[in-house]
Amino acid sequence: MDVELLDKAPSIGVEIARALVPTTRGGPDGTLPTRRVMVTDLEQDAERFAAYSRVCGFTLRDAVPATWLHVLTFPLQVHLMAGGDFPLALAGMVHVSNEMRLHRPVQVEEALTLSSSAADLRAHRSGTQVDLLGEARVGDEVVWTGRSTYLARGKRPTGAAEVSPPSSSDADGAADRQNPSKNARGADETSPKMGETPSALWRLPAGLGRTYAGVSGDVNPIHLSPLTAKAFGFPRTIMHGMWTHARALAALEGRLPATYGVSVDFRKPVLLPSTVGFSFAREGDDLAFRVTSKDGSKVHLTGTVA
């Protein structure tokens, strides 16, 4: 695979603007870029990491959580998706699931080589899905890997096999899932073990999306204000799914081993302002968790730490 070596991590805002320039894309029948985008010798910003930890609820430590490494790799994903050779338009793509593995503890003072590539363009009952893969290395050692699955609603690849229709519980979700991550699959069915009432409530203020954007760099307009969210069909500002993911991981950090894998499905968007509930349960050696409405009736996110 060819490597596109960048001098520094790209600006997500600039990449979003680049993606809005009209261009002819291959669509569901197109081909994915065959290059890996890479940045080397990236020095982590300790002050930014401290701010990220505060916003997401992590205890500030020298060792970074897995979600922080996703934040650092995410601009490379957006750079790939914004390119003219990416077959699907970035606007309107929905992040439906995420999985990552921390292979060994990573310290904030360690310099990183980050890379991202695209894989597995495939049919989904609601359109077309694609995976964006991420990797972090310290020297030659792989210390973190991640996979983000995105859905482009609408057309499916020509000749794609018929996919069974969604169940009634999925039909009104923000992001239908054809291939949920293995550990998160069926997490709704584990809810009785966690209790129908959340064990903790989190109050999310109206400006939380802007606050998280400031520390993560993810300036997608749907997260910044009601006006820009409405332009994309949402009634109010919606919270970043990766903040919800990180906040759940922070709630479990005292139970996390030194190395772990975590997978989540993003089920329904969290509108701002709002109050959401969190609950978890141990299932064998794994921790299953979910974020719901405050009464537990609506599931926003399900996940598993293994």
TrEMBL record:
Which parts pass through the membrane? none
Alphabetized GO MF terms: fatty acid synthase activity
Where is the region Disordered? Answer: 154-200
Leader sequence range is none
Any GO BP annotation: fatty acid biosynthetic process
SUPFAM superfamilies membership: Thioesterase/thiol ester dehydrase-isomerase
Q: Which GO terms describe its cellular component?
A: fatty acid synthase complex
Residue ranges of domain MaoC-like in the record: 210-300
**Pfam families with a match to the protein in the record:** MaoC_dehydratas (PF01575)
Name the InterPro entries on file: Fatty_acid_synthase (IPR003965), HotDog_dom_sf (IPR029069), MaoC-like_dom (IPR002539)
Family membership: Belongs to the enoyl-CoA hydratase/isomerase family.
Name used for this protein in its record:
MaoC-like domain-containing protein
- Supply the source organism for this entry: Ornithinimicrobium ciconiae
